[in-house]
Amino acid sequence: MTWKNKTRPNPLAGVITSGDGPARRAAELAARLDVPLLAHPPADSLVVRVGANHLELVHCQPHGDLAVRVEFVLGAAGYRRQKGGREMLLRAVGARKGERPDVLDGTGGLGRDSFVLAQAGCRVQLFERHPVLALLLEDGLRRAADSPETKAAAERITLHGQDVLEYLKVPGPDLREKTPVIYLDPMYPGRDKAAKAKKELQLLQLLLGDSQNREHEEAILLEAALQAAGKRVVVKRPRRGPFLGRQKPSYCLEGRSTRFDIYLTRGR
Ligand SMILES: C[S@@+](CC[C@H](N)C(=O)[O-])C[C@H]1O[C@@H](n2cnc3c(N)ncnc32)[C@H](O)[C@@H]1O
Questions:
Q1: pLDDT at 111
Q2: 210, pLDDT greater than 80
Q3: Between the CA of residue 243 and those of 60, 94, 125, 246, 253, what are the distances in Å?
Q4: How far is the CA of 75 from the centre of ligand 1 (A)?
Q5: What confidence tier does 195 reach under pLDDT thresholds 50, 70, 90?
Q6: Interval between CA 54 and ligand 1 midpoint (Å)
Q7: pLDDT digit string (tens) for 131-143?
Q8: Residue to mutate, 129, 213, 222, ligand 1, most ligand atoms under 8 Å from C-beta
Q9: Ligand 1 atom closest to 109 (CA)
């Protein structure tokens, strides 16, 4: 799980502990991510912070750190769980009364959408190619598996710290059967208006950067998903955003700020 992008320097300065975080674990993670273990973060740097019970990605700034972690138990995730939320996502993947399709989430990020699906009863194959985000997801899933309210959902998710294209491009006669529904939510700059979400997005953008070939890469990802999905591909977009790869979907579901584009693939 090391930095593979040869065209862009690794934006991660290193790993630190929060004071009460276990030093041995920090050293292990620094080795795994191939970055230094730091006593103090340099000014204006991006680091992974190891706490007593969780990992965070932190942008260390003079006027206060900005931190993000994968959280399925507390805060907004807990609220969403109690309120049942995100029905539109469930409808988009084809969930109906008594029917919960298996979903391959090809763009894991902070795992929020995957967790909503798993909480509703779907089994989810979760792919995230960035080593830091894969690590944060692993950490969030471990904590969710330790909590009685979220244990069952966490156990429905299988995390793959790899590029989903590597998986989708290996031809196999049963791939379509194994992956009836593929869900994609590629990064779309400036899509979320809420202040906290905006800050988190900024942090992720610092980590992930913006590819010169974004549109081309997205088109390849959609095409691979269309070839592999047995029933449908679902793409999350900003409400007024362009179609991924300029491909018109079979139909759309529109919310206030988000749109789900659904491509039916059976019989393609
Ligand atoms: C906008 S985020 C997804 C947010 C996610 N839906 C959530 O609920 O937190 C997009 C993520 O997809 C990942 N990604 C993009 N292309 C990928 C690929 N080919 N394979 C695996 N992960 C990919 C990026 O690293 C990024 O973390």
A1: 96
A2: no
A3: 36, 20, 24, 5, 13
A4: 22
A5: low
A6: 21
A7: 999 999 999 999 9
A8: 129
A9: 27
Write down the pLDDT at residue 59.
95
Give the C-alpha separation, 182 to 189, whole Å: 22
The residue nearest atom 4 of ligand 1, judged by CA position, is 109
Q: Which tops the pLDDT comparison, 115 or 5?
A: 115
Task: Say what the ipTM of the complex is.
Answer: 0.99
Joined tokens for residue 42: 């340099």
* pLDDT for residue 200: 84
Contact 119, 90 (CB under 8 A): no
Which uninterrupted H or E stretch holds 55? strand 55-60
Task: Find the 215 Cα to ligand 1 centroid distance in Å.
Answer: 14
The kind and range of the H/E element at 56 are strand 55-60
Report the nearest-CA residue for atom 5 of ligand 1.
109
How close is the Cα of 176 to the center of ligand 1, in Å? 21
Structure tokens at 16: 């630190």
Q: What pLDDT, in 10s, does the model give residues 29-54?
A: 999 999 999 999 998 999 999 999 99
Q: For residue 9, what are the contacts with CB-CB under 8 A and spacing of at least 6? A: none
**CB of 113 closer than 8 Å to CB of 183:** yes
Which domains can be identified in the chain, with CATH numbers? Answer: 12-68 (3.40.1630), 75-264 (3.40.50.150)
Chain-centroid distance, C-alpha 193: 19
